[in-house]
Every structure is written in structure tokens, then in C-alpha cells.
Amino acid sequence: MVTAGTAIVAALRDDVDRLLAAEPDVRADAWDSVHQMRVATRRLRSVLRSYRTLFEATPIAEMQHELKWLADLLGVARDAEVRAERFAALLATHAPQDEFARLATESAAPKAAGSGYVPGTTEYVRTELVDAERGRYRTAHAEILDALDHHRYHALRHRLSAWRTDPPLDADKSKQPAAEVFERILRKDRKRVQRLVYAEPAVSPTERVELLHDIRKGAKRLRYSCEGATDVLGSAAKDLGTEAKRLQTVLGDHRDAVESREAILARAAETHATGVNATIYELLADAEEIAAGEALARYPAAAAFVSG
């Protein structure tokens, strides 16, 4: 019989390895490295939360606190990176360069002093959106590097390395059969998502956006708990995790579009966009509104598995 303790140590070891393996690439600022380390950190937090009954309470609470610190730090850089990529793609797709250049020329808009670009053109908006986010990313990445050299991260890394083989397991609960414990945990995580999905039709439009975000987070937690249980429960956990990932992805697409639209409108207000400039911002905001609607249209099918 495989015990729950043995099984969770194996799952935990894989998650710790993912996190630690990402550090050198983050230091080198390799492509997608911040994203990979952030995902590994969130995944580890999620597994510890779902399977927390198998561990001693105090060490887990302390570890969760430190992992949240690291995830939040990585999140600032990653969010800026995502916005820069998304804004660049939106401009390439929805801002017809030649037309805006013509309109800007006809309006005889002067160049901003020392900037080398004409206010009102796509390049002006690109600077206000894409370049600004890239600057935020560089600042946030520098803060990550400082943190990775700090004793707080060194202590976290040392503790995680020890937990690869010897985490603080609860002496009694970790001896229970892995299949029974893991099945119970997956049922609980699934019911959590189910309750949120069932509540969604009754909330107001303003509450809906945040509830959908909560459903996304619940689906992500379910996905990671399923992936941690696949070696024990086989295809049942794998298939459920696939469904949870699909729901997470759909609502992630929705959330990204909503937040991107809000950021575009906020940036337009900050820069007092007028004329052609305002038109570009409006086009991008409208495109994100459409993208959010398209993602939301896929939500009912993606959420159907919770009723099965």
C-alpha cells in the first residue's frame, strides 16, 4: 500500500524542483523564465494548500507566507511582461499604421519635444503602452534579482531543498492510504469549484467579473491537486485535471482581456488622449471587449464538467 505521505513527498519534490530549476534562467532574464518560476511558486502553494492536512500546520503556514512573498514579487514583473506583449499584439492587429500616420500628418500635429514621434500616431501610443510596460518589467526584474540575493530567499531555498525528501508530515494522517486521501481531496477541490459555478448566474454584472476570477483560481487549484494525484489515481485524476485546466484557461483569457481593456482606458485618461490618439485607444479597448466576450462564450462548455 502506498501511503499518502510517500505519495505527497514525491509530488512535492517535483514541484520544488521546478521552482529551483527556474532560478538560473530568471537571473539571466531568459525568455519566459519569470513566468515559469511564478507558475512553479503558485503551483507549490496550491498543492500545499490542497494537501495541507497531511502536514504539520505551523511549518506549512510559514512556507505559504514565504511562497506568497515570492509569487507576488514575480507577479509584478510577469504582469508587466504580459501587458507589453498583449499591447504590442493589439497594435499590430488593430491599429492600421498607414491610416493613422496619414491622419496625424493631415492634422499637422507637432512632434513632442525631444521625443522624435508625433502625438496621435500609433508609435506615440506604442510608447505610452508597450514601452512603458517594458520599463516596468525591467524595474521589477531588478527587484527580483535583489530578492534572489537576499537572505530571505536563501532561507526559503534552503528550506525547500530540505522539504524535497523530508517535509513536515503529520505522523498519523500521512500513514493513511494515498488513494483514499487523494480522492477525498480532489472531491473537495471539485466541490469548491462547483459551488462557485452554481453561484455565478445569480450575481450582479459587477460581481460577476470577480466571481469568474474566483472560479478561475478554484479551477487552477483543482488542476494542480489533480496533477499531484495522477501517479496515485491515474486517468481519473489526469482527465479531471485536463477539464480544470480548460476552465482555468478560458477564464484566464477573459480576465486578461478585461484587465488589458481597463489598463488601456486608464492610460488613455492619464495621457489625455485626443483626436487620432484617442481613436487608437478606443480601437484597442473595443478589441479587448470583444476578446473578453469571446472567452466568456466558451465558459459554459468549459464549466460543464463540474456538474458531471
Overview of the structural elements:
The chain has 308 residues and is mainly α. Helix content is 80%, strand content 0%. Helix 1 packs antiparallel against helix 2, helix 1 runs antiparallel to helix 6 and helix 7 runs antiparallel to helix 8. The longest helix has 38 residues. The radius of gyration is 23 Å and the shape is globular. It comes from Nocardia vinacea. Pfam families: CHAD. This is CHAD domain-containing protein.
Largest sheet: none
Low-confidence stretches: 103-119
Strand content: under 5%
Name the structural class. Answer: mainly alpha
How many alpha or pi helices? 11
Mean pLDDT: 90
Distance between the termini: 30 Å
Q: What radius of gyration results from the CA coordinates?
A: 23 Å
Number of E-state strands: 0
Q: What's the order of the H and E elements?
A: HHHHHHHHHHH
- Using the alpha-carbon principal axes, give the shape: globular
- Helix residue percentage: over 70%
Record keyword descriptors for this entry.
308 residues, mainly alpha, 11 helices, 0% strand, globular
Set out the fold topology.
Elements: H1 4-27, H2 33-50, H3 57-94, H4 97-106, H5 122-148, H6 151-163, H7 178-199, H8 205-233, H9 235-270, H10 275-297, H11 299-303
Helix pairs in contact: 1-2, 1-6, 1-7, 1-8, 2-3, 2-8, 3-5, 3-10, 7-8, 8-9, 9-10
